[in-house]
Amino acid sequence: MPPGVPCPLALWPRVPLPLPLPLPLPLVVRSRSQRRTEADPRSRSPKPTPKPIPESDAEAEPEAEAEADAEADADAEAEADPDAETEAESDRNSHPGSVELPDADLCARTNGMIDRIVLFKLKAEFVAERETIATHAHEVLASLPMVVDVRVGVPADEATLGSWDLSLVVRFADLAAVHVYNGDPTHRALVDDYLIPRVEVRKAWNFSAS
What we know:
Blueprint: H1 32-39, H2 55-80, H3 84-93, H4 104-109, E1 114-122, H5 130-142, E2 147-153, H6 158-161, E3 166-172, H7 175-182, H8 185-195, E4 199-208
Antiparallel strand pairs: 1-3, 1-4, 2-3
Helix pairs in contact: 5-8
């Protein structure tokens, strides 16, 4: 175009306008453990907190252990003392109100003569009266109608003398007669009023006699 003539807009060179630069993003630095946590979704769940034990349960545990120990000690004592049940049975037989009559099956199994064997350890102050006590016991027991036979003995050697002072062997027609004997007033007076005040230890057993 000649100089001095304005150039139409259509003939101007098209120069691209500069675009605005993007703003810089903030730089976030993550540790290795953080990256591992973000990669594993299971690790994001919160860990369950332990449930506190109620004070009542915590106090009950020592009590339960103490009761278990007491039962174990009782079982051990029962095994160590095989006569413990016999002693309890003897005490029940010495009180007529607590005596239970045998059932029919027990009587059937022990059909026949019964020997009741009783051992006595006298108190030290009554040992000198051993013969007198034996004679009196024999006289009273022999007079009872349910007693078939009675024998009273004293120690025959030093070994027996160290443990017992008197023995009674009372024979009955059957086991039911033994329980009648235990509640007889004459027998009760002999045991409760005469023998018990003089006796330190007493053991009793019932045997089926042939």
